[in-house]
Amino acid sequence: MQRGFLIKGGTVVDGTGAPAYEADVRVRGSLIAEIAPGLTPEPRERVIDATGCYVTPGFIETHNHYDGVMWWMPTLDPMPGYGATTTINGNCGFAVAPMHDDPAVRKEMVDIFSFFEDIPAKPFLQELPWTWRSWSEYRKTLEQNVKLPLNFCSFVGHVAIRLAALGMEAWERAATPAEIEVMADMLRDGLEAGALGMSTNLLDHDSKNRPIPTMHADDAEMSALLNVMADFPGTTFQVIVDHFMRFTGPASVERMGRLAKAAGVRMQWAGLPTLQFQSFIRPQSEALHQKFKEEGLDFVTGFHHESPTTMISFWSSLVFAQSNNYVWNEIIAATTEAEKYALLGSEEWRARARISWEETFDQSPLKYPDQLILRDSETRAGPVDITLDVFMTQRGIEHPSDALADWLIDNGVGSNLFLVPWKRDEDVVLRLLRDPHAIGNISDGGAHGKMFCGAGDNVLILTKYVRDNKLLTIEEGVNVLTHKLASFFGLTDRGALKPGLKADITVFNIDEIERRPEYKAWDVPDGEGGRTYRYSRPPAPMRLTMVNGVPTFEAGAFTGNFPGQYIGPTIHKMARAAE
């Protein structure tokens, strides 16, 4: 039997920010056993040649939405090929536990998750067993039924807690003291079972412009839940705020920071605005960021280093609703082709759609026809790969809403619209990458599968920022993806290359890796016996991705191994063990 692995001849970047050095790495079982130059292979030890490569800790994905997806796509493609070894889920307040007894409320929870994260609802309802009620029962069910190639950790979602405690009234009102006590018990159950913390959402409105249920949580509710978290050292309170649509972010950050400080709870807020159109609101958020530092608050600001490449599907997309264009969202909500074409051809609908288009938020690309590219014609009638304003000029159409409707009638409702990525202030991104109170790699991987593929954005840290533009050193780039994240989330048994830690390891030649172009992978069940698509990417590729001492990606391909574990904050585990 094979005894272990010896990764020889590479340059070790241990994740902590310490200088890189030449050394070999020995792995036994699930742990790193030894790191030193010139190690001699032992009997039954497999040698992996890392000449010309960096050997680093495995990369941590800080913001994914695989909660439902992993049940029908346990490979978590393409993440193993991008060096990812840990995925964090239950973000944005959205989760699949705890759960109300009423099936209608369960469906409401799935519909909320499905709408905001563009995850198909039918497989969500059909592929998951839905045998749990509490978060601890959910975790047990996962461990018994789903094997993954990455370590999996998850927040308890505040939206799920409110729906489980208040039912449909979670949309409408504040909780009573008795309901708050029920929610506190639900959160405690999740944290005792190893949840990463609790996530809440102060950003989203649904397709009917209703604020998400967590926006009805008053300070009494939030304080009670944060006081539960205070009993679990190392857990994180995540809050999603609005710097994008209604610009309530600064007020939300100030409020949540005040409550988290009073409870003595670690907070992650997402995120400090980095897009150029957000420059007017950025000073307020940066001032709060600095204030929290000066006050010694245990916090980080979340951000992503890359604007998503966004495709609008006319079958599944929240872009219109989230842009305040609710009439065009009726096209998304229509369930059949016939219904969609009937709306597009209706003069009554077109009149309403023109008005709704004018009410679109100014910051939305939908407001700017020169930022909208016609793509993926279903009928190939064309034209394609031109902007909507050019099409308007060619056809002599005065209003962009009418032009898009005409193009869809000709090209099919299975066609797509490409949004030119928002421009970033790169100096702000670089400051955040180096800031000890900021964490990145918020990719939304697993969500919005017909809009973009966030998985794979991680390697842009190593290519765009380290290799190509030399804005970061290799030590800084690896730290951003590994130890910095593990330390904040309390995952102290991994995230660095040190003997005794978990053998989550990535080996790569920096000249070989790229974020590869997206393609359509037709492997998503449509709930009716067929398959639909999601966007994925070919591997970067890494030379080796290893999770808990087991290779998950090697020789250019997924290995078929599923060594991932369901993990939580080790600080909390150690503290509870000591008691």
Describe this structure in words.
It contains 19 helices and 23 strands. It is of the alpha/beta class. It has 2 domains: 337 residues, Metal-dependent hydrolases (TIM Barrel); 110 residues, no CATH class. Helix 6 crosses helix 7 and helix 12 packs across helix 14. 50% of the residues are buried.
Helix and strand topology:
Layout: E1 4-12, E2 21-28, E3 31-36, E4 45-49, E5 54-57, E6 59-61, E7 84-89, H1 103-117, H2 121-127, H3 135-145, E8 151-154, E9 156-157, H4 158-166, H5 177-192, E10 197-201, H6 219-229, E11 236-240, H7 249-263, E12 266-270, H8 282-295, E13 299-302, E14 310-313, H9 319-322, H10 329-333, H11 337-344, H12 347-358, E15 372-375, H13 388-395, H14 400-411, E16 416-419, H15 426-434, E17 438-439, H16 460-468, H17 474-481, H18 483-488, E18 505-508, E19 519-525, E20 531-536, E21 544-547, E22 550-554, E23 557-558, H19 570-578
Parallel strand pairs: 1-4, 1-5, 6-7, 7-8, 9-10, 10-11, 11-12, 12-13, 13-17
Antiparallel strand pairs: 1-2, 2-3, 5-18, 14-16, 15-16, 18-21, 19-20, 21-22, 22-23
Helix pairs in contact: 1-4, 4-5, 5-6, 6-7, 7-8, 12-14, 16-17
Give a summary of the structure in a few sentences.
Helix content is 32%, strand content 19%. The protein has 579 residues and is α/β, with parallel strands linked by helices.
Query: Regions with pLDDT < 50 over 5+ consecutive residues?
Result: 572-579
Q: What's the N-to-C terminus distance?
A: 39 Å
Number of strands: 23
Instruction: Calculate the mean pLDDT score and round it.
Output: 95
Q: What structural class do the secondary elements suggest?
A: alpha/beta
Write down the CATH topology of the largest domain. TIM Barrel
Q: What Rg do the Cα atoms give?
A: 24 Å
What percent of the residues sit in helical stretches (DSSP H or I)? 25-40%
Just give the CATH class of the largest domain: Alpha Beta
Tally of separate domains: 2
CATH superfamily of the largest domain: Metal-dependent hydrolases
Strand content: 15-25%
Number of helices, counting only DSSP H or I runs of 4 residues or more = 19
